[in-house]
Amino acid sequence: MTGLQVLYSGGVIRGLTNWGPFRLPRPITKHQTKYHQGHHFIMRFDSSSAVQQSVRRTLGLDPRMIRFSVVKLGDKLADIKDVSGKVEWNETRELIGDNLGVQVPLSSTRGI
After folding, report:
1. Residue-range domain boundaries for the chain
2. Is the pLDDT of residue 109 over 80?
3. How many other C-beta atoms are found inside a 10 Å radius of the C-beta of residue 46?
4. Which residues contact 11 (CB under 8 A, 6 or more apart)?
């Protein structure tokens, strides 16, 4: 649905990546249900700010959506042309490393 909003409004979808299910860093309660795991997706798209607000509104109203985020990657195509949306994982589903050499575990069970 959100992809169609972007396309019908003249935006461009640059990529859709399915990261699969992950244990959440902490339990999240939404719609009177506590979630310990979530399915993660990344949709890279270019659109106007009005379309971005519409996407946020649609995702916020979707009962299947536990949490979402919209991140601005850059102002110009040159800033974002090499961002792939793919992540390299090791066997424990931790990030192998980012550009700063910092390892960030996504399989944290803190608070559970």
Report:
1. 2-80
2. no
3. 15
4. 45, 46, 47, 48, 51
- Judge contact between 79 and 68, C-beta under 8 A: no
- Phi, psi (rounded to 5 degrees) for 7: -65, -45
CA–CA separation, 81 and 45 (whole Å): 12
Confidence bin at 108 (pLDDT 50/70/90): very low
Question: Cβ of 11: how many Cβ atoms within 10 Å?
Answer: 17
CATH for 2-80 is 3.30.70.60
Give this prediction's pTM: 0.65
φ and ψ of 25, to 5 deg: -60, -30
